[in-house]
Structures are given as C-alpha cells and as structure tokens.
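Friendly challenge for the regulars: who can give me the structure tokens for this chain first? No prize, just bragging rights.
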Amino acid sequence: MKDTDTGFTIKNIGFIGFGLIGGSIARAIKNTHPDIFIYAYDYHEASSNNDYQDAMADGVLDYVTKDLAVGFSKCDIIFLCAPVKANISYLEKLKPIIKPTCIITDVGSVKSNIHEAVKNLSMEELFIGGHPMTGSEKTGYHYSYALLLENAYYILTPTDKTSLSSINLLGDLVKDIGSIPIILDPKEHDEITAAISHLPHIIAAQLVNLVRDSDDVSQRMKQLAAGGFKDITRIASSSPTMWQNICITNSKIIKKILDKYIKYLQDTSDALSNMNDNYLYNIFDTAGEYRNSIPSKSVGLINRIFEIYVDIMDEAGAIATIATLLAGNQISIKNIGIIHNREFEEGVLRIEFYDEESVQGANTLLSKHNYRIYER
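First reply, four minutes later:
Bragging rights claimed.
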C-alpha cells in the first residue's frame, strides 16, 4: 500500500493483542493487501497460543514473536489491540525500537488516557488514536472475521502533532478494509462512547445481576428470561476484563453519565409513586420516536444482530424445511431457534444471519414460499 502524496509504502504491520478486533482487522488487511507482511507479538507466558497458531495456519499472520524488537522495528503501522491499560504500557516499550516514520494506533474505546500517556512520552508525532465502532459479545481470534469492519464507523483521534500525511495514510487503510473513518477529539470521543456504549454495558450487566439475585430456587425468572430480555442484555456476556479496564480508564465521564441516568430512573420511580400517567406515557413515546429515527442498517458501536422472525407450524420437520430452503439458495445461517417467550417478539422461529444481504435474501425467499416474516 502506497501513499500517493508522499510515496511512503506500507510493507509491514504489527499487532499487539490478537483477539476479535485485532484478528478481524488483520483478516481485512490481508484480504485487501495480501502483500503486506503482518507480525504479531505473543505476550502469553506459555510457549504457544492457539490463536496465533490458527492465524498462521489461516495465512492471516506471517510471523509471531515473543520479542518486540524482532519484527516490530520494521513496522510501518502498529495496532495496539490489548485491553486499554495494557495498550498504554506497551508505548514505553515500543518507543526505543520503532522507526521514526512508524504510526502507532490503538483500538480501545477510551481515548483521553492513552493520549495523555503519548504526550508524557513525547510520542505525539507517532500516534493516532483509533476505535473501530464494531464488535461482538464473543471474544478471541476464533470469532474474528473481515466483514466485522464492513461499513462500520472507525473513529480516528490524531494528536495536535500528527502529520496530515499520517492521518491520510491510516484513513486510507481504514477505507480499504471497508470502514468509514471519522476524526474526533479524544475527549469528545470518550463522552460519546460513555453514553452509547459504556453505560449500556453497565446497565445490561446490572440488570442481569438484579434478575439473578431476585430469582428463587425454582429459577422461574431464568426460565422465562428468553426472547426480549436475553436480547437487550446480550452485551452483558462481553469480556469482564475489557469492561473493567474501560470503566477504570473512563471513570469520570462514565460516572457523570451514570449519575444522570440514575436521575432519570429516580424521576421514573417518583412518577410511579405519584401515578403520573403523563410522565410515564412520555418516556415511552419520546424514547420510541427517537429510537425509530436511528438508522437500522448502519453499523454502530454495539454490534447489530442480523435476524428475522418467522411464523411456523408446530410439526415435525418445520425447521429443517426452512434450513434446507435457505441452504439450497446459498444463504448461511448463524443461529436458529424456537422462541418460547413471545411477549416482545413476533414469530416463533428466530433465525440469525451473518450480514444484511443474507437477511434480505432470506426475507424474499421465505416470503415467496408463503412464510410470514417479521424484522425487528
């Protein structure tokens, strides 16, 4: 990959941390630029790690090292894909070994703290903060795939000393892997992500804990919690280490947003006590109107689920018939299952796909065969 303005060529890229996001970025780079040599640093104490071995076997990685000085001194771009606090610790280790033209970027969902560390280390000319606004509740290289970056917003937070050529070079790479680069100030980024990502994860986790602690020995809550409840709390299954890091490194802004949310909950509690029907109607009315205005087909910070719901008869072979029909038309199913708690769901059969194209194809195909389809 070559910068047409400066003539600078990207030949080598390094990854520190190689899970879902790092693996997906590396896969996308290999798909679009197979000539780029990709290094990965294996920081695990054990002699080997299956993720790195699998990535080598897949042809995604070209070289795995346990010594940062090996390979990373040649890198033109280095992606820091470890937990937020760990990414900061690697800056000091990289500083004496990297090329003066190297671009260091990260993928963390908190930016202010790593920018502060970069400034303290006088590495501002080398650094561009990064945050691909995509992901999954699943973790690890095993779940990575190149299309995870497709049409996703990719936030870039350059420093005041980052050169325009470096911003353009990284921005072009982001475009090449299918993402949409957006430049933000680090603090602005942290305020946005605290509201639309960090707080929802806290809410989801504590809602699950509330139900867990409120359930009795019969576990009826757990039994009936399928469907809508499981969907809205899906993100509670995310990596606890990653979210512990995020909460600690963005604690002030998250607390400000959380305190504001607690006020909203207190107002709702007061409305219930006072039987304030107008207030209760308005919270659902305004929320519904705003949520419906959010584009459903764009990729946001919390990964979208590609799914449809289908009405089927309770008879032998009903699911197999649909699965065979879809497979016969080269439409891959990610997950399929019966919904028993249908209080918030239309359609008894839930089918999850890998992408929007599959949703559209399945909708058209099943409709032609007289199935009733519901999209959420």
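Residues 341-346 have pLDDT under 50 and may be disordered. The two ends are 40 Å apart (CA to CA). Your move, everyone else.
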